[in-house]
Specification:
Layout: E1 24-27, E2 29-30, H1 41-44, E3 49-50, H2 53-63, E4 69-73, H3 83-92, E5 96-98, H4 109-117, E6 122-128, H5 132-137, H6 144-156, E7 161-168, H7 175-191, E8 195-202, H8 219-233, E9 238-242, H9 245-255, H10 262-271, H11 276-285, H12 291-294, H13 314-325, E10 340-341, H14 348-351, E11 361-362
Parallel strand pairs: 1-4, 4-5, 6-7, 7-8, 8-9, 10-11
Antiparallel strand pairs: 2-3
Helix pairs in contact: 2-3, 3-4, 6-7, 7-8, 10-11
């Protein structure tokens, strides 16, 4: 869907029999150009597109005829260029606003204030990693000052609960990064006086991301680091929630599996029950083992998902992977100037829509299959 504005991206049906019952959902934007290297949605939905404010407010008025709750949907709600005006206008219409989580670099004060006024019980921010070094590795460029400003804002607006979302087991992660996570959370604890919770979810490598070649951390390492976090933080009245590393491994197998998983899925469907034990038994019956899918993938190994065209070139993923090895961050999308064809998600007509006609920077050339054949090159 290249032209998002050609479509109505708001709830059409209202029923209590849904996950978001009695909530009028409005997709304010699609795609995210932040380039977090672990995030599948951030790449497969490129380029970032947004709906104009006037249209969003019209849809909100329609939704308010059915109830006062409006859910704003986007990979990065606070990145909408008119989010401040949107939050103020929605509150003036009498809407109670909900969002999933938000960026903090910088945080939208009008949006957070609107959430507080709407009776939102939990403000969620996602540092993703405890140390700045590791945030650079995953291309999560928000700094400690931005994050702590969000914590202090949550305290000032008296949110009942603050939730910090972390992933553990990121590529290159060490115990020092876990200690940094603990210290960051303790610093947040000093600033936020009410309920504080963190999620420590295992990193799962995904296809069509710069981390598609990376190994998943082993189960024992994940459990040990989750235990480190829990032991250090629970005495300080921090609720620690951690997803099972075993279930995360199931996700990793499914995320990077190939056609060999077909009989596994059929067997599990026939059983009608999915447990850790039944999943690994089905793998074994097919002559497979989870380690074949959760370990490191060689760069010269053909990736099974290359037959799926995501729009972003493998050379771009390789370029971002190499930045990871150096602990360097990549650029955001859209770039500062129009005419960028760096990741190849945009065709020239789209890339030049706001340009002055100057030639685009480009890496490599497309083939008919959409795969770059020339080596990646650093942009000047």
């Amino acid at each position: 869907m290249r032209d998002l504005q050609a479509y109505r991206t708001a709830s059409a049906l209202y029923t209590p029999d849904t996950e978001f019952a009695n909530l009028h959902l409005i997709e304010i934007a699609r795609g995210c150009g932040r380039g977090c290297r672990f995030c599948l949605a951030g790449y497969v939905y490129r380029p970032a597109r947004e709906q104009p404010l006037a249209r969003l407010l019209d849809w909100a008025k329609q939704g308010l005829q059915h109830g006062d709750r409006i859910g704003l949907v986007s990979a990065a709600v606070s990145d909408h260029t008119e989010i401040d005006e949107m939050a103020v206008a929605l509150r003036q219409l009498g809407a109670r606003i909900s969002v999933s989580s938000m960026r903090t670099d910088p945080i939208s004060v009008p949006l957070v204030r609107a959430l507080a006024e709407s009776g939102t019980q939990t403000l969620t921010i996602a540092p993703e990693a405890g140390s700045q070094r590791l945030r650079n590795v995953i291309n999560k460029t928000q700094g400690v000052d931005d994050l702590m400003a969000a914590v202090e804002l949550a305290e000032a607006l008296k949110f009942p609960q603050l939730k910090l979302y972390f992933m553990i087991g990121h590529p290159t992660e060490t115990d020092e990064d876990i200690e940094a996570l603990v210290q960051f959370t303790l610093a947040a604890r000093k600033r936020f006086k009410r309920r504080l919770a963190i999620n420590a979810t295992p990193f799962v490598p995904k296809a069509h991301t710069p981390f598609q070649w990376m190994a998943m951390a082993d189960e024992s390492t994940l459990k040990r680091r989750q235990a480190m976090i829990d032991k250090r933080l629970r005495p300080h009245q921090v609720a620690v929630r951690a997803e099972s590393p075993q279930w995360a491994q199931v996700q990793a197998v499914l995320a990077r599996g190939d056609r060999r998983l077909a009989p596994v899925l059929l067997a599990l469907a026939a059983q009608g029950d999915l447990t850790i034990r039944s999943f690994h038994a089905a793998l074994a019956d097919a002559g497979l083992d989870a380690s074949q899918f959760i370990g490191e993938f060689a760069h010269d190994r053909p990736l099974p998902w290359r037959i799926v065209e995501s729009g972003v070139s493998d050379n771009f993923f390789d370029y971002e992977w190499r930045l990871t090895q150096k602990g360097e961050t990549g650029s955001h999308c859209p770039p500062d100037s129009a005419g960028c064809l760096t990741c190849q998600a945009c065709d020239p007509a789209w890339a030049f829509r706001f340009s002055d006609g100057k030639p685009a920077k480009r890496i490599g050339t497309h083939t008919s299959a959409g795969v770059l054949k020339t080596p990646i090159a650093l942009l000047g």
